[in-house]
Design brief:
Elements lengths: L1 H25 L5 H29 L11 H48 L1
Helix pairs in contact: 1-2, 1-3
Length: about 120
């Protein structure tokens, strides 16, 4: 039961990440390679969360979904880690967008200043 709670708590975070990635890609704010990289990252996270516990149980000879050893602290810790990865990734994306905007503005100012100096 605890394992299902863990998956149900992590799934919305990963779903939100997928929606954000697809939205950013469709709006043209991220490149195709960045889109692929992000999709692989979040697919890996959800596969690890879904698959790691049953694989561990299988390797030690217990039933696949036996979650008697999974504490509430483990659940909270895993959800917090996945959420922090989402937050860090989101902040990195925002920083890159700000840098791109500043670079474009700097380029525009340089062009305008060079035109202004050319007229004088």
């Amino acid at each position: 039961m605890r394992y299902i709670i863990l998956v149900l708590l992590v799934a919305p975070i990963v779903l939100l990440a997928f929606i954000n990635i697809v939205t950013q890609y469709k709006l043209g704010k991220i490149s195709r390679s960045r889109f692929r990289h992000q999709m692989v990252l979040w697919l890996t996270i959800i596969i690890v969360v879904i698959g790691s516990f049953p694989i561990y149980n299988y390797s030690v000879g217990k039933p696949l979904l036996d979650s008697s050893e999974l504490s509430l602290f483990d659940i909270a810790q895993t959800v917090a880690i996945v959420y922090l990865v989402y937050i860090i990734n989101n902040h990195r994306r925002k920083i890159e967008q700000n840098e791109h905007t500043i670079r474009d503005l700097h380029q525009e100012i340089s062009i305008r200043l060079s035109k202004k100096d050319g007229k004088s």
